[in-house]
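INFO batch 0412 | record 1 of 1 | parsing
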Amino acid sequence: MKNLNYLNKFRIKYLGIKGDEHNGAFKIPQDNIIFAVVASNGLGWEHVSLSLLTNTGTTLERCPKWSEMCKLKELFFKDEEIVMQLHPKKSLHVNIHPYTLHLWRPINQEILIPPEFMV
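INFO prediction complete | emitting tokens
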């Protein structure tokens, strides 16, 4: 994960704290919407969640598009870092917010990917 201090002008308090270089909440204007982001790095994982807000601050009732998830990856992770969206088995699925998607990266462990010609 990048050092997130470069996004400090978009940082907001979340659970009463502002976060640090790898943790925090952000409201980042993107085109005609706002990215509502929570970033964290604990328990061996880097994690970023994205939901969308209208310019007036209300929840946009749709999941982020692929292009928006790509922009999120660009903003929060280094170019050569591999991150993933995770689809857990049904018994472990938790849905706190129906329009939020997540990016995950294990710390100190490579994510296995298929051979390059298959990707």
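INFO post-check: The chain has a mean pLDDT of 94.
INFO record closed
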